[in-house]
Amino acid sequence: MITDGKPSALTLEDGRIYKNAFGLDPLVVSQTLEEVSKCKRAGVLINTFMLASDYGLVQFVQKVTEMCRGKAYFTTPYTLGQYLLMDYMSRKTRTIH
């Protein structure tokens, strides 16, 4: 699975969609981390391509990447040709040009 890294919505038990695109909603974050755990148990590798640099969101993506032993690619719209690769599978971090 490839994600943009921002947890912004979830499906409630009654089937309704709960959305909050502003900040990191604690309810959405906790449910997302539960899903990450389920993905890991099911053998689903999660790789994240991240354009944002918000501190809290970067920490969240780092946690998801660590939990599922995936990869996170950090860049900005201005530096798409370069990115910071965080690879928890090989336990390496490097800058790619």
Reconstruct the topology from this structure.
Elements: E1 2-3, E2 9-11, E3 17-19, H1 26-42, E4 47-50, H2 55-68, E5 71-74, E6 83-87, E7 92-96
Parallel strand pairs: 1-4, 4-5
Antiparallel strand pairs: 2-3, 5-6, 6-7
Helix pairs in contact: 1-2
Description:
This protein has helices at residues 26-42, 55-68, and strands at 2-3, 9-11, 17-19, 47-50, 71-74, 83-87, 92-96. The chain is an alpha/beta fold and 97 residues long. The protein has one domain. The strands form two sheets. The chain has a five-stranded mixed sheet with strand order 1-4-5-6-7, covered by helices on one side. Strands 2-3 form a two-stranded antiparallel ribbon. Strand 4 (47-50), helix 2 (55-68) and strand 5 (71-74) form a beta-alpha-beta unit. It is globular. The chain starts with a strand and ends with a strand. The mean pLDDT is 83.
Q: Portion of residues in helices?
A: 25-40%
State the secondary-structure class. alpha/beta
Q: Which stretches of 5+ consecutive residues score pLDDT under 50?
A: none
Mean pLDDT: 83
Provide the domain count: 1
Q: What spatial form do the alpha-carbon principal axes imply?
A: globular
Give the distance, in angstroms, between the N- and C-terminal Cα atoms.
24 Å
Percent of residues in beta strands? 25-35%
Elements, N to C (H/E): EEEHEHEEE
β-strand number = 7
Strand order of the largest sheet: 1-4-5-6-7
Q: How large, in whole angstroms, is the Cα Rg?
A: 14 Å
Report the sheet with the most strands, covering strand number, pairing sense and barrel closure: 5 strands, mixed
Quaternary organisation of the protein chains: single chain
Q: What is the count of helical runs?
A: 2
